[in-house]
DNA sequence: TACCATAGTGTAAAAAAAACAAGAAGAAGT
DNA sequence: ACTTCTTCTTGTTTTTTTTACACTATGGTA
């Protein structure tokens, strides 16, 4: 066992007042043709019973992203999801208990993973439509609004959207996903032409029957790595 | 004088360990057809004499943006510049003195304002080409790299670039600005067509003589407010 | 085998982006 | 006053990208 490196606690920097720092995560999924966000009912002293974004205090020996992953796993039981830093909110009085700065992340979870059974920790977590959710504690509405804008924007010029689908999916499902998030309808032929031109997906030999009609071809992403390439900035 | 509101210091949240939080600013300007960044020589105990991004510890009663503005003014003597939150860096050991999380901002200063005489505070600040600057302390190279990517990206789909020019400017100056930041040449006629179609600038009646040749028409932005409209996300 | 519902596909028009060159204007030198 | 020098200014054609739009294919069920 390696002894963890420590800091120079005698340094002058420790004379500056320190704020609390939390990580809050906006976790999106698409379920039943609806864009949903995960909210938790607060147990902590302040604002008990109110709904809020899942979050928690960072630990000093983990990076911000590690904090986010830890909290994400605690609250949802899932790992290995798309996670991206969103923005840092730090109004002095956004929390009456103290100066609390929160680094907001957004996460995308595909509908398969999302079905994972809730642990005890997760008991009071619930999915809400982004168009219809209860009042939120702190400035979490602002955080949610902002992340929704960002998600829509990134959907247009990156491939983040793919993170919300299971490994194999039909083109209609993919299109529906875009339509649900962007809240507008898209032309089927143009959409397929676009996807084809991006050269990111390939046919499988499987099909999927969804009702009493012609079954749809299943597709898969060509490469997982490739997905993040265009996500810089 | 109004008594400042305070926090509930008895709350449980104060039992969680707190990191130090700083704000670092990547201040860009364009000078002599070069994209430059402002760096300061460190006076503090650690890494004394090394170059770093201007920055400082936040105060608990000011917002992050207020902190950034304060530090910006201390270091450059200028106010009212374009300022945008970039990213928050928080690797546990990015600073050996303690856990220090830094919220990075980037600022754009036009070449006129930039000429402001340095105060004592600013004595050891210096502009460097983004292609040729000294080794930086901490993870500031990473911060600078990231902000450069972001600046280039935003230049393509927003009007941030206009922040780097004085009130009145020629179209050639505007084009040169884009060329310098994007590090590529642009077609003069297409560039002007584009600018015209954006409908953001208007002719003035003045011209500017730059050498022994035909003088160029000066333009100005139609509205300052308008500039930020497309800067969401 | 007829019906139902969605899957799957191509072409033409419009808009946006890229490629490309010549005359205009002012200053300086003759 | 006119020639020269250097940058300013402007338009058309081609290519690429985006949008609009409608019919046939397929498998299951009645």
Fold topology:
The structure is a homodimer of 233-residue chains.
Chain A: E1 20-31, E2 34-41, E3 51-52, E4 55-57, H1 64-76, E5 82-89, E6 100-108, E7 125-129, H2 140-157, E8 168-170, H3 171-182, H4 188-198, E9 201-208, E10 216-221
Parallel strand pairs in A: 1-6
Antiparallel strand pairs in A: 1-2, 1-4, 2-3, 2-7, 5-6, 8-10, 9-10
Chain B binds a DNA duplex (30 and 30 nucleotides) through residues 170-172, 187-190, 192-194, 197, 209-217.
What does this structure look like?
Two copies of one chain form a homodimer. Chain A is of the alpha+beta class and 233 residues long. Chain A has two domains: 17-155, Nucleoside Triphosphate Pyrophosphohydrolase (Alpha-Beta Complex), CATH 3.90.79; 158-231, Arc Repressor Mutant, subunit A (Orthogonal Bundle), CATH 1.10.10. Helices cover 23% and strands 27% of the residues of chain A. Chain A contains four helices and ten strands. In chain A, the strands form two sheets. In chain A, strands 1, 2, 3, 4, 5, 6 and 7 form a seven-stranded mixed beta sheet that branches. A three-stranded antiparallel beta sheet of chain A has the order 8-10-9. In chain A, a hairpin with a 7-residue loop joins strand 9 (201-208) and strand 10. Mean pLDDT of chain A is 90; it is low at 225-233. At the A-B interface, strand 5, strand 6 and helix 2 of A face strand 5, strand 6 and helix 2 of B. The structure holds a DNA duplex (30 and 30 nucleotides).
